[in-house]
User: Fold these one by one.
Assistant:
Number 1:
Amino acid sequence: MALSGGGYRGLFGAEFLAACESKFNVRCNNRFDIISGTSIGALLAAGLSASVPATTLAATIKDYGPSIFARGITTSVKQLVVAAPYSPAPILEAIRKTLGKPVAATLLSDYDAPLIITAVNYSTGETSVFRSKGIAGKAASAVSIEDAILASAAAPTFFPTKKIGPSEYIDGGLVANAPDIIALLDALNFCHARMEEVYQLSIGTASRRQGSAVHEKSRAPGSFSWIARRGLIQTIMAAQEHLVLSQMSSLLRNRFLRIDEEPAQNQVKAIKSLDLASPAATETLQLLAGKAWEGHKTARPLRDFFLR
């Protein structure tokens, strides 16, 4: 299973998986050999790998979202000019409340469940893939689960970098907002699966495609416009995600199932940014998760992941 990043929009995936666990009377960790995640997907992946019910994960996002993304009149100014506007402290609290402090503090090199968390090493400019003992054995990462999640969630312009040892880390969404390819390669390389044996469930975050209308002349926006008006960070993540999903479809074909639900035009405003954690955002994400569930609940591809 691969869980995409998307800030508060991760509620979409948590609600969808909660419906799956309830309907099929199973826990996700008993049905998937690998669980991978980026950003909010990293928290969901860690929780699912530790047998935390998806309903609990959905409640965590709803309970902590407003404090994690506590917007004020100076939020936009801080975001664009001064510093990252949000503190990682509420995320850490949510991690420890959801997983329990002992599990949250566990080193991935001591963690037997199969878990993958992605990040970017800002100090070296390299992709960092944090792997548990349950995936990589002796090659697992000597990083705590909570530190790996915080690194993966350190989205530029939203949160400060996460320091682990001598390096600083930022959001894995910059290179692997959909960590599907990483999960696939680890199944082949670490689990020694054959390509034809791999079935993968991919969960999105109900994000609307980024970009703007085509104009007769090419646009040349400045850096402020790119970030403030055109959502550069989210566009990078969306483009990367689109590429990975097209690659996964080509590689696995009907053995790859992507669950996502793009909002209608009248729903966009409520969830247009990953840091919107309002009642309207909650309602919209729950509606979209419900729509995705209704569209897939009787479909054989989904049922096979949970019942086969």
Number 2:
Amino acid sequence: MQNLMLAPIKFYQKFISPMFPPSCRYYPTCSNYMIKAIQKHGAKGIIMGIGRILRCHPFVRGGFDPVPDYFTVRRNKNPEGENKHV
């Protein structure tokens, strides 16, 4: 079932994405984020990935935003490995 959900994303990465310059404001890229979210959360990962794509626009700061261990469509506020500023 997971392979069925991942197939369109892999197709996009292999055939469509190379035709355009890199433009994702986040790391990992939106397509990689969706793959990792599906692997970690199953079908809910699709919702997380769509939420991430909707957050990726010119008015957002972007940066490091890994897939959280829990289901959410919001940005990971304190990702591991990122310095916490007080």
Number 3:
Amino acid sequence: MEVLRAFLDYLRTSIAAKVDGVPEPQVRTAAVPSGTNLLGLLNHLTFVERSMFLGDDVTDWQATFQAASADSVADIVARYRETVERANDILDGCTDLGATVPRPRPGRPAPSVRWALTHMIEETGRHAGHADILRELIDGSTGR
């Protein structure tokens, strides 16, 4: 479990760093035809973390890729970090990778801790790669 958590935490820190400090409107500007933008990626990952570990029900995943215009970069970064902290609180109580994630979600079975961590590593890593490219297009910044 320790290794999986370390990989996930590394990716979480990496993507938050890619968004933090990018000025408006570049942080919301789509640099690719799909409309993907840095702030939207972090907003989406906040919803994925909340769904996976906190039991939130998301009905429109596509909408999570756009941050509300009233939300600042600092708001979205802080919300992501707070969500990660809450998710880690849940994970701190998990000692068996084969057990289900302890989350309140009536009528819907929770995945195993192993599946949830693996999925979050894949999801966060995928979007961190997108963020790397978008950030480089914005200001030339590369690396973690």
